[in-house]
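User: Let's play a game. I give you a shape written as tokens, and you guess the letters that built it. Ready? Here's round one.
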């Protein structure tokens, strides 16, 4: 683990929590990739999103559909170029008020002290069912 690995992830989460797109852009590489695997059509935000503009579009798409009630980090794992967080949380679907309680794993790849890749593994079925 390096201090820059943890700092990169801390900066990422702080920017998201604050809704600060400039800070999020500053926390990522120019070719950042978001990878949110899910079956085709299951979630509006699934797929691969590349570049800072698409990163912002990814988070806006999620925000259009969900509000975050709470998220708690339960575990972290670190290497020199990767940081993994295990989360549990609750979200509310904006269109119907349904609650989603789920766990997620976020995998960050760090390059030169910046987030280069963000991969999310979540309970896709729980979110897809709540969106219906």
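Assistant: Ready! My guess for every position:
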């Amino acid at each position: 683990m390096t201090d820059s690995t943890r700092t990169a992830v801390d900066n990422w989460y702080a920017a998201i929590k604050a809704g600060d797109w400039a800070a999020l852009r500053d926390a990522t590489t120019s070719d950042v990739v978001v990878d949110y695997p899910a079956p085709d059509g299951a979630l509006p935000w699934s797929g691969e999103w590349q570049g800072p503009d698409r990163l912002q579009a990814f988070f806006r798409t999620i925000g259009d559909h969900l509000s975050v009630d709470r998220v708690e980090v339960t575990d972290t794992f670190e290497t020199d170029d990767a940081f993994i967080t295990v989360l549990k949380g609750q979200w509310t679907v904006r269109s119907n008020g349904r609650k989603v309680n789920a766990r997620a794993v976020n995998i960050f790849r760090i390059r030169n002290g910046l987030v280069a890749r963000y991969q999310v593994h979540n309970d896709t079925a729980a979110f897809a069912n709540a969106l219906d």
